[in-house]
Fold this protein.
Amino acid sequence: MNPKVVIKKCSEYINDEVYKTVKDSVDLLGGMSAFVKNGERMLLKPNFLVGKPPEAAITTHPAVVGAIIRLVKEAGATPIVGDSPGIGNAVKVAQKCGVMDVAKELGAEVIDLATSVYVENPEGKMFKRLEIAKEAIDVDGIINLPKLKTHGQMFLTLGVKNMFGCVVGARKPQWHMAAGDSEAFARMLIDTYLFLKPRLTIIDGIVGMEGNGPGSGGEPRKLGLIFASTDCIALDRVITEVLGAKAHDLLTTKVAEEDGLGETDIDNINILGERIEDVKVSHFKFPPVVSIEFKLPFSLHSYLRKPLTSRPYINKKECTLCNICVEICPPGIMTKTDRININYDDCIRCYCCLEMCPEGAITIKNGWLKRLIAR
């Protein structure tokens, strides 16, 4: 059976309007009772990257989280809001991004996904053993609530990528290192998503993020859209189409197609609600495509890697020397003196520094030869 993806318009973050749009979207997929049973404990997994106000478009908006809390409770289940941010914990981020107020008002607990356990993953395409937060395993099911954003390494952070938040924050750098390059990291994300298999995914695209995302360097962009599906691979493929990107620009879609996982052919996806051609986004600002970075022949690697690839670049005028990027860097190749220094020879281009920079002072800079080719 072809996977279903719902696209619905929603103009503003007005609680009742968001609730109705989300409910209509879920109803097109069979209604919340198709995904949640009476008495179950359901983890609602938003994007809690850093503690910023909702208008920054970095975290899933409180109105979207609130709508799902209401629907889950109406189905007779217990909603638990949880994530594992790269810095801090979910409770503090929820307080800063406005979700805690909504959760308290609606009677939902907010937890930090903080206890790391190893799990066997025999069905994994690449990673047969994963490290997942115990709190994400101990619930009866997961509802995935991503924010539509750009992402320096993965191009976009959508349904598949959001499940990486079920890896404990302190362990995320080690998984970047274990993967090694961008395509291997994308395969780890696919393996993690398929292991956890959220029952339902609702993507907050009412106001998304474009440009230098997914953190403070990105720019909010009003899109006026909510997306829903039970299949994140198909869902992510539809969103790239709506935004005007090529399918393989999103690395998780690329590796899913190569590995025969999920549905990546847009013609085989059943679109419900709005038609793609009626909601297409014009001139969306994407980050540079970085997928070629580790595909050079070994004999040319040392000579062409820098001019042919992208790399993190620090704007000294914006940098406050807070040291967060140094502390979060998976390979430990950043140092702080009177400025932040990067050893590009050992940089794995994971862009964790860009993701976590609170000032948006880190951007992606293309090598001179890559800039020339792209003209």
The CA atoms of residues 307 and 367 lie 4 Å apart. The first helix runs from residue 15 to 28. Residues 4-279 form a domain with the Rossmann fold fold (CATH 3.40.50). Confidence is low (pLDDT under 50) at residues 291-295.
